[in-house]
Amino acid sequence: MPRLPSLTESFGGSGRALRVALAAAVGFYPAAYLMDRPVVALYALFTPIAFGVLSPLPGSSRDRAGSILRAAPAAAALIALGTALAVTTWAAAVGMLLVALALTFGAACTPRLASVVPGLQLCYILACFPPYAPETLPERLLGLLLGATALLLGELLLFPPPRRPSYAERVADALDLAAQAAGLLLRAESVDGAAADRLRTTGRELRFSRQPHGCRPTGAGRTDRALAQAGSAARRLLDQLAALGGLPPAPADTASQTLLHGIAVTCSDTAGVLRGGRSVRGAEFLEEMTARFLDERAEEPESRGDPPYALLRRRSTLLTVAASAVTVRTAADLATGGDREVPGLPHEQFWYARVPAVRLWFVRVRGNLTPRSVVFQNAVRTALGLALARLVAGSLDLSHGFWVLLSVLTLARTTAVGTWSAVRSAAAGTLVGAVVAGALIIGAGDATGVYAGLLVPMMVIAFSVGPVGGPGWAQGLFTLVVSTAFAQIAPVTWRLEEARLVDVLTGSGIGLVCGLLAWPAGARTEMRRSVAALLRASAPVVRDTADAVTGRRAEPHGDAAERPTAGSLGPALHRLRIAEAAYAQFRTEVSPRSDEDGPDWLAALNYGSRVLTGAYWLPPAQGAPDLSPDARRWVETAGREVAAAAVRAADLPSHGVAFGIAPLSPAVRSATSPGARSLLVDLEVWLDALAGELATATGAGRPASAEATNRQER
Description:
mainly alpha; Methane Monooxygenase Hydroxylase, Chain G, domain 1; 3 domains; about 70% helix
């Protein structure tokens, strides 16, 4: 058994445990003792457990109550389906396969569904086991109604937890900080190291891996896509402001000062919009200021001479800040119900703005229909495990066979190592729990009053300690809960604990076999594959963007607003989404070895995001400028060097990929017009940043540990 959780850990979730225990008792006791309906009592007991413990619903009390209300019809349908398919073992197993596959895969489209999937699966599991008794369906649905109603009222009335800020509010707080930083840059033109660290830290806190499950805007609809894009743009904005604060000041650059003021105003205004307020200025405010900044930069009088190179780079960095601010402002409008054509902005960046919701779901499902998607892998692994468990339990005629499936559902992990760790702990916990419960049954005999008095306290302890104590405590305490409950429904002996132990061990074995056979490494192997695919897919985007600066890239035909991306952007965006999903799962998995000497996956994702951002914003809207042959040659060479480095980096060499593009020479800068010169510096800043991200992602220049050196020598 693992260590006993501390009192702080155990009772941190006591409010939820009390709500679930009381909701289960409100339905269970009247059904068992007043109505004498054991079927009603069973479903009234397990419904709060399904949606209160097995599916820990996120959000406020009202959000959780809404989730229960929306899940109840689906739960009723699954109970009816399971009742009908319980006629044969094969029918129930095939139904289990399809239900688990549909629910697990469908959870990728909406976080609301993801939070209730385990509870919905349990509803089907309970109903699909013998005896085949379709005449009891009304009683089963009545139990569901009693349990769901009691849990819903408990969520609204009992022990409301402190409210957590939504993701939109977190983005709004980050934008307030960005507005303050922009104001500081207006006054001092630089930020100190502590302020820059705060900007970067706040940006990292917006990552989905730092948000509670169910509170992440990962849905396929327009609102979630826009909110996710707003968060990504806000992270990028904070990093860019920190970088801008470290550049040499330019006190006489009034155009930059004006644009920086517009950025501060836009950030503050967007924060208010995300909190539900009204916009003080239109969304086009910063777009127009950015356009004026570009015009002023391009029309700088030749008589003033060439501006300093440091000033050109500072202006280019400021332009990236403005692009991020425009992106987050537009995405915030879309996330809060705005319905506009986003004129003047890259169509590919906001491709979802005018796409119907049904097609957005289709795009999400189609994008994950590949063995390289961790969403697909998890859905297949879970569905096969549950279907096999149902087949084995039915074929062997195991008593209380639904415990086999419940074990698979609660103990299966995304890696074989994680599953084995959970199985070992659960087996020990179940054994201890079975011994204690067996002793209780032998000692109490048929005294149902003893079991009735112990049920609620046992549920409170189990639902408080189990979630934080790990599989061992969860399975051991849950064994006591089901023993005290079943002893009140029908006469039991100590052999109930024997059946419980056999069922848990059987389910654990099935889960372990599926974990070994179906993608046993989890997201670790997929992380390497998806990042390699992302780096290869990004190479054509870099080349096409460089070609667009020189005017060589042909514009795609058709309405870009009606499809996700155009040209080479589509594969790159798809690979980035696959890699991001793999990284999100990778962060949750226990690694058998250290990754300190491996690639920096987060830097690889940042590289992919930066590639797409540059592809959206760098190509000049008014057409490519006239460039000298030397300038064209530099653009083509630099673009191809970065693209070639990305292809080399896709192999993830142990020594990394370190390189630098040739700087834009003073002769080339002097031989071009102000507008073309500024565009070339924009491209140089972007390519330099990509080179740095590639070096970080592949670990170039990082000293190898002794273990890594020994591996290379062997």
